[in-house]
Design brief:
The protein has about 220 residues and is α+β, with helices and mostly antiparallel strands. The chain contains eight helices and six strands.
């Protein structure tokens, strides 16, 4: 029954992660929660046959205590860094909490396990919307602009970004001379309040004199 409860609670957390296309999803959270519960059960009951032996001291927390550092290696695999952007921290934290829930279920602390699962789901569902609503300025994009025969393109792009409250985090400029003339390759890492602003900025940059191409990607 404890293993089944761990499966249900871990699945509830994993469903939210899977629904939002995160690296560790439904099955991973189930396995972490259920495995943690099993290790706690082994610690508590797996060696009961030796409890009556002389000079034997039972420690139910010994095996279970190794779950916490072990889950750190699994969580580290979900954390990715791309330039200024770090992803996977919430998923790594959810795996850590899922393991703690599994330990609580294995120990018979059902109220704490169910309550923590409920609070965690509230954090993942509701607070995720709050974060998107009030912390939308965290979106970072990679913007690439190619201009031909227009040395003033960099200044024009800079003025346009400033006018739209776009913060430049990194700038790289490459000047080439080819058969089509002098080309300027501008690569920027920028912070934009929201995607709609990014679309407007890209459209305005494309309308500048000499601009051959504009592309942007979320990072």
């Amino acid at each position: 029954m404890r293993l089944l409860l761990a499966l249900l609670l871990g699945g509830a957390i994993g469903y939210e992660r899977e629904r939002n296309n995160h690296p560790a999803g439904f099955r991973t959270h189930i396995l972490v929660c259920m495995g943690s519960a099993l290790l706690m059960l082994i610690s508590m009951y797996g060696f009961s046959a030796f409890s009556a032996a002389p000079h034997v001291t039972m420690d139910p927390s010994r095996i279970a205590s190794q779950v916490i550092p072990s889950i750190g290696f699994l969580g580290a695999g979900t954390i990715l860094r791309n330039g200024f952007n770090v992803t996977g921290l919430t998923t790594a934290a959810s795996l850590w909490v899922a393991s703690a829930i599994g330990l609580a279920v294995g120990a018979g602390f059902y109220f704490g396990a169910v309550l923590t699962t409920g609070l965690m789901l509230i954090s993942l569902y509701i607070l995720n919307r709050v974060e998107r609503r009030f912390f939308i300025d965290k979106r970072i994009y990679s913007l690439k602009v190619t201009a031909i025969d227009n040395p003033a393109a960099l200044g024009a792009v800079s003025d346009l970004l400033e006018a739209n409250n776009v913060l430049v985090r990194k700038l790289t400029v490459k000047d080439d001379v080819g058969s089509d003339g002098r080309s300027l390759q501008i690569s920027l890492t920028i912070r934009v309040p929201k995607l709609k602003v990014m679309l407007v900025v890209a459209e305005k940059i494309r309308g500048l004199d000499g601009v051959a191409s504009v592309s942007f990607d979320s990072i």
